[in-house]
Amino acid sequence: MRLKRRDFIVFPLLVVVFISLATPAILFLIHPEQLKALVFFLGTLFGITSGGLLYLILLTRQHLANSMKRFLDMCSLSKNIVCELDTSFKIRYANPVALKTFGLSKEKCEYGIDIPDLFFKNERFRARKLLAKLLTQEEPQTDTFEMRKANGTLFYAEITLAPNIDLLGKHKGFRCIIRDVTALEEARQHIERLALEDRETGLPNQLLFEDRLSQAILKASRRKETVILLLAEPLYFKLIAESQGQAVADLVLKAIAKRLKENCRKEDTLAITNHPEFAVIMTLTQTETKIQSALTVAEKMLENLKQPLQVSGREFFLGVGMGIAIFPEDAETSEDLIKKARAAKYHAKQHGKNSYEFYQPNLTQIAHQDLEAEKRLRYAFKNEEFQLFYQPIVQGETKTLWGVEVLPFWNHSEKGLLPLHVFLSDLKTRRLSLPFVEWMLKQARCDYCAWQTHNVQLPPALLFSLTPWHEDPIMTLLLKHLDLRALPFAFEVEESNSEENRFPTSVQAPLFLKDTGKGLALALLKKYPSLAGLKVSAHHLQERSGQDEKWMRAFWNFVDLFSLTLLVHEVDTPALLAPLKEKKHLLLAGDEFGKPQSAQDLERFL
Q: What's this model's pTM, rounded to 2 decimal places?
């Protein structure tokens, strides 16, 4: 409890008066003759007491001087700014760090310097407000301000102010400690940027994108403006990450972001949401044509991304699917607008690369159905519903086993056994081709090893068809990650695979070209030394007219001239086999020689 000013005057005065009056009266009543001795005694006692009090005063003064020296020495050694202010907010003392930082002198401090003048211009009002608040409080206050150094540079200062109150309760000013926290503040701001920006591209991330979209919709609703949300997703990006590595994929992502930014206006927001999905937020005034503006941006982006990306000395061709939704026509909230744009984007991806779609009311239901279908496919992967079947391939002349063709099926829980062509488009549109092909080869390896373990007569060749996958750039990745030499693989490719140079020419396994009538087989004989023959359907070798007879004669002359093996499939009836009885170098496959069967059934067959 702090003593009041009158307590230091009234209380000692009453004690002295009481002792002065009471002591002589008591002694006089007890023994009057000793009054003189008492006076002598009191005089002696007063002298001793006065000397002792004088000594204590000098000792206390020396102690206070030493304490003050230690305090000043500590302030001088401190790396922080230490200063003392009076009640008018003027500096009366400043340690050497303060003098150096603010370019002050001791003489200036003696006259007093207004400390708010040292703050950055925008911070002065807030600093005065804090100082005025401390005039009515006794608790220290800490806050962060921007201050200006003597050289004009700004720095972040953490300021702790405490009121300076004496024993009598009088407010004498403030004690102030200022700590330079510029490094900490910059680190905090950097962490905030990391939390709101994408690490690879520096674009706003999902969190900041959602906030800016919400703010754009709020402003647009007040001003009766339009917000257009465009979502763009590069195709085959995950395939690049898996085949080329994450470092190359990050560089590709930066290149895509740079190109998209070239087509955005300064007032637009380009963000990256779900890797690798990009989002563009456009706010249009009432005078701007919303549909035309969205079309212009989408077409520019598509045209820009059609050009090959040069990354690490390589060229990458990436298609893109875009979805566009408009506020307030399509949705009234940011969450709904994102859902509608993604539904449109998903529908655009179904149409192939380099396309865009505006949201339509029926797209939500279609997207929901597609998502359910994708979920069902992934469920099939997880629960091992896919199964490999093997169809025997025999020599035409001896009818001995040449090999087996690998055929994938889906053992659907509701629809039964489905061949590949039924669900092939679903695999491709959902970018599941690569994991499915990898599963096929790994499963074929497992079945082949099981046959070896059971001492079964192994099939001399496993014909694996790459024809369904010619639209997906998975050939190089396939051969890179799988050791094909461990299995006696032969491959079937379509002319379009070779025409687009997707199938590696260095493959040493037997290669069968599926003839589709494009006239490319002759040129490819030179390109692929491992080309063992052609694969045609038995139905295509049936003569029906004079023109067919000429074509058949030319076809057989071509096969004989280059000594090609002809793999004839779909031989399901004896009638289809009849025209082939006198031909040589034939391989035959079809129900006439064995239907597709599981690995266990083939084991019993072998």
A: 0.48
Condensed to tens digits (0 to 9), the pLDDT of residues 32-47 reads 565 566 665 666 666 6
CA distance 556 to 375: 48
Where are the extended beta strands (E) located within 86-195? 90-94, 113-114, 141-148, 154-165, 171-180
The residue to which tokens 């930066």 are assigned: 254
Long-range contacts of 128-134 (CB under 8 A, 24+ apart): 128/89, 130/161, 131/85, 131/89, 131/161, 131/174, 134/161, 134/162, 134/163, 134/174
By the 8 A CB rule, do 563 and 585 touch? Answer: yes
Q: Are strands 113-114 and 141-148 parallel, antiparallel or unpaired?
A: unpaired
Alpha helices in 78-94 (DSSP H): none
Pairing of strands 320-327, 355-358: parallel
Q: Are 603 and 389 in contact (CB under 8 A)?
A: no
Beta-sheet pairing, 355-358 with 269-272: unpaired
Looking at the predicted structure, is the pLDDT value of residue 409 above 90? yes
Residue 153: name the closest of 193, 118, 113 by CA: 118
Give the model confidence (pLDDT) of 191-248 as tens digits. Answer: 777 777 777 788 888 888 888 899 999 998 888 888 999 998 887 777 777 777 778 8
Neighbouring C-beta atoms of residue 10, cutoff 10 Å: 11
